[in-house]
Design brief:
Layout: E1 12-17, E2 22-32, E3 35-44, E4 54-57, E5 63-75, H1 88-133, H2 139-184, E6 190-201, E7 205-215, E8 218-229, E9 232-243, E10 249-257, H3 282-286, E11 288-289, E12 319-321, E13 326-328, E14 335-352, E15 360-367, E16 377-383, E17 386-393, E18 401-409, E19 412-424, E20 431-443, E21 453-460, E22 469-473, E23 484-485, E24 490-497, E25 502-513, E26 517-518
Parallel strand pairs: 1-10, 8-16, 11-26, 14-21
Antiparallel strand pairs: 1-2, 2-7, 3-6, 4-7, 5-6, 8-9, 9-14, 10-12, 10-13, 14-15, 15-18, 16-17, 19-20, 20-25, 21-24, 22-25, 23-24
Helix pairs in contact: 1-2
């Protein structure tokens, strides 16, 4: 079968960007002849995965796809003007090429003029010979004409010798620069791929082809922009898209998915898990070893990694669509693609956890009205018309409350002091550890400010996992009494701070353990 040497354009029309690759879809209209024929389509990105290549004809024309494959070949790179990132040698080579072309054109014009002057001198000598044969005598005029032609031939001849000398020098300098570039900046050939499609058509006519495949070197991550304006919050959802597949995506329908096609779909293998029992020793029966440890509350999502994190989709594949066609060049840089935006009423509080940080932070909460899940990602925070920093947005289901921290307040100061006392009772030999935490909160206000602010303070008490250790909150000794104590040991106070006010919050709790407990 004969293959047309000139390939048929096969542009990218739709892209589904996954977590670490992209599914590319291309469409083209083919004008088929009757019978079996092989078509050359492309060029396409050389990184396309062969085993994912799929082609189908989407019209009612009687035609069938017999074979489709990707053919790659190394081709030298075509000459292109140097850019800003190219070396001085390449810029000098380009300048010499342009100058040599101009000198060659000037040389050709001089040669043409000298040839014309030579023919003019020959015609003048023939006229002199013919006139002398007929008895004509115009010596002065013939002399002036010959002198003028000889002078012009000498002038243009000298200019031609100068131009040829300059052209020889340019050729020598250009050859030296190219030898230096071959040693220092030799560029490898470019890998170009085309699609060879073999089809069989019962009759001639147009048919629409849809071809798809996977390609690496493309990924996306969610990004957000939160604007706080009074009592409302505007949250814009964007996608940061990187791609270096070897071809630009121009005006494509972009779909963003959290599906992980690289993961295996087979269930994990079952292995035996043996449990064994053994008697405790006498020392183990006499004592109980305990220790205080920090336990982070587990949440859904991937484990944190160094560098670019994965996409936290809450354990379910999510699909987002770009509302308009987008263009993403193949430059490996991040390109921001708008996805959605919503405005919702926002409520919040000024919160502080002094054990973690002495700063009072403005926390804003609003309902997710975007119509889709908000994936975990960075968020740019804007308040009062200015950029105040960057935070992190956790995974939020549609309709659920999302929580954002809009930076700390400089007009609050929190100081934390702790005290501990240890006592042992005589009869039961129980060890009682009493811990007192005092939080000193102060507010700095501008002159004339009269508005009060409410600050939510959170502290924690240990949570016992063994019956031999008891943790008790002494509510009567706490000033003021806590507003709430949850099952995870978080104690909360709501403190109203007037302008220039100072408050002290005291937390007292006891840890008591029997004599058999060691390590407390």
């Amino acid at each position: 079968m004969f293959t047309e040497p000139q390939p048929i354009a096969l542009p990218v029309t739709a892209v589904t960007c996954l977590e670490d690759r992209a599914h590319v879809e291309r469409t083209a209209v083919l004008d088929l002849d009757a019978g079996v024929q092989r078509l050359r389509l492309g060029p396409v990105g050389a990184l396309a995965v062969d085993r994912t290549l799929h082609a189908e004809l989407t019209s009612d024309h009687p035609a069938t796809v017999l074979d489709v494959r990707i053919v790659r070949e190394w081709t030298p790179r075509g000459p292109v003007p140097p850019g800003e990132e190219d070396s001085a040698l390449r810029h000098r080579e380009h300048a010499l090429e342009e100058e040599r072309l101009a000198v060659e054109q000037h040389r050709d014009r001089l040669r043409g003029r000298l040839d014309l002057l030579g023919r003019l001198a020959a015609d003048l000598l023939r006229e002199i010979g013919e006139g002398a044969g007929f008895g004509e005598s115009e010596g002065p005029r013939w002399g002036r004409e010959l002198d003028r032609v000889d002078a012009e031939r000498e002038t243009y001849g000298e200019e031609l010798r100068t131009v040829e000398a300059r052209l020889t020098a340019l050729t020598a300098e250009l050859a030296g620069i190219r030898r230096a570039m071959e040693l220092a900046e030799e560029e490898p050939a470019e890998l170009v791929a085309h699609v060879e499609l073999t089809v069989e058509a019962a009759a001639a006519g147009p048919v629409r082809l849809r071809l798809s495949h996977l390609t690496p070197c493309a990924l996306w991550r969610p990004a957000y922009r939160a604007v706080l304006d009074g009592g409302s919050l505007t949250l814009e959802t964007d996608a940061m898209v990187w791609q270096r597949t070897g071809e630009d995506w121009s005006d494509v329908r972009l779909t963003l998915s959290t599906a992980r096609s690289s993961l295996a779909t087979e269930p994990p293998r079952l292995v035996e898990d043996r449990l064994t029992l053994k008697d405790r020793s006498a020392a183990e029966r006499r004592t109980i070893d305990v220790e205080l440890r920090e336990e982070e509350i587990a949440t859904l999502g991937p484990a944190p990694v160094v560098g670019l994190p994965g996409v936290d989709d809450g354990g379910e594949a999510r699909v987002l669509h770009s509302p308009a066609p987008v263009s993403v060049p193949s430059d490996g840089r991040a390109h921001r693609v708008p996805i959605s935006s919503f405005r919702a009423p926002a409520g919040g509080e000024y919160a502080c956890s002094p054990e973690l940080s002495p700063l009072v932070t403005q926390v804003v909460r609003c309902e997710n009205l975007s119509g889709h899940a908000l994936l975990a990602g960075p968020v740019d925070l804007v308040r009062g018309g200015g950029f105040i920093g960057r935070g992190t947005l956790d995974f939020t289901a549609p309709g659920a409350l999302t929580e954002l921290a809009f930076g700390s307040r400089d007009d609050f100061r929190v100081l934390r002091r702790t005290e501990e006392s240890r006592d042992t009772t005589g009869l039961t030999q129980r060890t009682v550890v009493t811990r007192t935490v005092r939080l000193h909160v102060s507010r700095f206000s501008a002159p004339g400010e009269e508005e009060g602010r409410v600050v939510v303070l959170r502290e924690r008490i240990p949570v016992s996992e063994v019956s031999a250790v008891d943790v008790r909150l002494r509510a009567e000794a706490c000033t003021p009494a806590p507003d709430e104590v949850d099952d995870e040991g978080i104690v909360r106070w709501t403190v109203r701070m007037p302008p220039g006010g100072r408050r002290t919050v005291t937390l007292v709790y006891e840890l008591s353990a029997t004599a058999k407990v060691a390590g407390l």
